[in-house]
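Example 221, ligand calcium ion.
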Amino acid sequence: MRVLYVEDEKFLADAVKHNLEKQGISVDLAHDGEEGLEKALMDIYDCVVLDIMLPKLSGTDILKRMREKKLNTPVIMLSALSEVESKIEHLDKGADDYLAKPFKTAELVARIKAILRRPNIVDDTKMNYENIVLDKTNMTLNGMQLTAKEAEILTEFMNSPEKLISKEFLLAKVWGEDGMGEDNYVESYISRIRKLLKKAHSKAKIITIRNLGYKLVGKNV
Ligand code: CA
């Protein structure tokens, strides 16, 4: 689970990040609208929290651009403008929830967790492709135990079979900007996952698309 929080009040941003990370949710911060938009458009987040009043570009503009780009990431808007009209306007524009400032950190954390619990975000616990079954709750592949990172990477492939997944995407999604992730982390994990797939007698395999990334494909591809 990875959340983007775009907030120019750094003290508040740090408090929310600290609180969510204690509960196992990774948080990337952006402190102005341009940085926020750039990160949101990476499409690696399970939830985006947007303050409305931001330097450079407002939260409302970020939301608009995200929806124009057909990103369906759930968005929670934050605003000191607590009028009902403002709330309706933002929910109309494609926000999923709205919280008026000032709020208690715990309240925002509860709203984020409620969104992450939605069935369209938290996928079914078991994912299938060809003859492989990934159990996300128990972190197993055809019954074999995986590490958390192996399970996360495999989830990305199972979410988008036969689609190109770039190394940069995996690095950002699994290790995050705060991580010490490097290109060769991805390579070594892909090689571990390939061995696991072989051990699981998988008919699916991960192929390398030279200079671009990887694809999970079935036996006939
Ligand atoms: Ca602000």
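Summary: The helical segments are 10-22, 33-40, 59-68, 84-92, 105-116, 148-159, 167-175, 183-199.
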